[in-house]
Write a structure and sequence with these properties.
The complex is a heterodimer.
Chain A (H helix, E strand, L loop, with lengths): L3 E12 L2 E13 L4 E5 L6 H8 L7 E6 L2 E2 L5 H11 E4 L11 H12 L3 H14 L15 H13 L5 E5 L7 H18 L2 E5 L3 H4 L4 E6 L2 E4 L5
Chain B lengths: L1 H13 L1 H39 L5 E5 L2 H4 L11 H12 L4 E15 L4 E9 L1 H8 L2 H4 L3 E2 L9 E5 H7 L6 E7 L5 E12 L10 E5 H8 L6 E6 L5 H14 L4 E5 H4 L1 H39 L1 H9 L4 H37 L2 E2 L8 E2 L6 H28 L2 H5 L3
Parallel strand pairs in B: 3-8, 5-7
Antiparallel strand pairs in B: 1-9, 1-10, 2-3, 2-6, 2-9, 4-7, 5-8, 6-7, 11-12
Chain lengths: 228, 412
Amino acid sequence: MALIEMENITKDYFLGETVVHALQGVDLQIDKGEFVAIWGPSGSGKTTLLNLIGAIDEPSAGDLAIAGREVRSLSDNQRSELRNDTIGFIFQGFNLIPVLSALENVMLPLQIKGVSSGEAKAKALNRLQEVGLGDLIRHRPFKMSGGQQQRVAIARALVNDPSLVIAAEPTANLDSETARMIIALMRELNDKEETTFIFSTHDQRLLDQVKRLVRLEDGRIVDGGLKP
Amino acid sequence: MKKWMKLAIRNILRNKRRSLVTLLAIGVGFGAISLFYGYVNNMYEGLRFSAIRGEGLGNLTINKAGWQEKGKLEPEKYMFSKAETEKMIRLVTEENGVVLATPQIQVAGIVSNGITSTIFIAQGVVPGDDRTIKGAWAAFRPIKGEGLHDQKPYGVEIAQDLARYLNLQPGQDGVVMATTLGGQMNAMDIQVAGVYDSGSDATNDKYMRFTFEFAQSLVDTHNAERIVVLLDNWEHTEKMRGILLKKLSQAGLACEIKTWNELSLFYSKVKGMFDMMFLFLFSIVLVIVVMSTVNTMGMAVMERTREIGTLRALGLKRRGVSLLFAMEGGLLGLFGSLIGVVLHISVWAVIRALSPTYTPPGISTPVPLIVDLVPQALFVLMLCLLFLSLFAAIIPARRAAQQNVVDALGHV
């Protein structure tokens, strides 16, 4: 069974009286352990597609199943639980909570889940060490560089051992060297833990590293085959 | 819960200036209410003491049934006979919590020093019982002279302005005239046994006190107009009224019983006025607290929209977001209240140290300005403001929770 199953998905937005067809009849399957980049020109529907896969938005029509669960049939609370259990998010702007330290940021998904403080701390510490930030656990985000913040975000996305990590332009705000390091880190985690990574990106350095490219144009998948 | 509490506290500290303004608004509001309550509480206590002890109303006043309505027209018919008075005193004093029950009679007439005459209103009291009722009041407002005494029935006490008007000093003689219950004019010699301060400008120029025996002679009766009952605890007044009404009725004594606060018009009016002022002040503070908290939390929700989106994306449920912001509102209320408690204690300590006095309208002498420190009241007020802030935060908290995750994440 595929981790993500999308069948004839459409997503429309209403801007006043104008209807914007963000996605039109998208069919997509992503399996466990894939390292997938969704790419295409601006306005092609990449972000919309990731929002649907991340269960933070719902399609106007079509069927979407994540880890075998039909998203449309889930209540808001069940979707929250699905996100917490199954999906990790890495945002372009890192989206760390500024009043929390690196460690506390990484502990957050576990604490939302209700894991005890001690267990959450141990797991978060372990993830921070894996991303090379074992020495900066007490630092608040504003005292860290962009690369360090993104690594905290990666640790946060992985701390719940999710099946799927969604990353929106994860290297867009980083310099070349940091971006290369982040890409290598994600690739390593993908290989080692078989965690599925799905990106939206324009970054050629990242596109060169992925196992599969899904190209979107005008809300349609024009190329979804495996990367040669 | 602890971790969310920590997050809420840090979020409050995030915008220190705004939070401080909100906390000060709540704290000053709390202080204003609690200090006013402390002042009013002390004043009510003073007025209660003055009514029960100073005015000599005791806690309960028992009249024959119908006295309030028709007693002035047919006084003798609505007075207690000597036998009824003795029976009633015996029955009343049997009850636990009753310190004494004493007969009284009120007389109105003309008092003269031989040259000048003026009207008076006098209470005929049993001197020993009257001293018991006065209790600590006697030290607070001492009588100039020896006061009433059973062995000297013609000795009277006279209020200070009346004494000044008639130029009567302790030991000097005068005459009182009044109508007997039979409708005849009666005059009796008096000797001033004491000059006292009634506590009120309105009564200091007309009040007198006679011995019960002398007052009976003046109006030519052996009856008593009322029985005044003193309790060991004023809080049992209402309960005791019920008990005595039932007991006296069963004993065949039809009577009506008024409490001290029903008879003290001054207390009732002052209390009514200050209760209204308290309500007005509380309403203003309530609006300030709600508006400050709604404003602060509303700004916080707006500024942290992207953060709310992130928390929702990480799996926090809507209820969790609401709870987080409601908690922040509640903590603002709690910390603001603590500032208010500190403010109250500081002002209370300064007032205690300086012991200022003032003369309220209608009162004959300066009284100390005292603000009570009532821990129970502070605690209740703290709970009140905490829940008020919590309630005020619910509106922005619900708005935060209802936000669309995608829109929230895209908020700039």
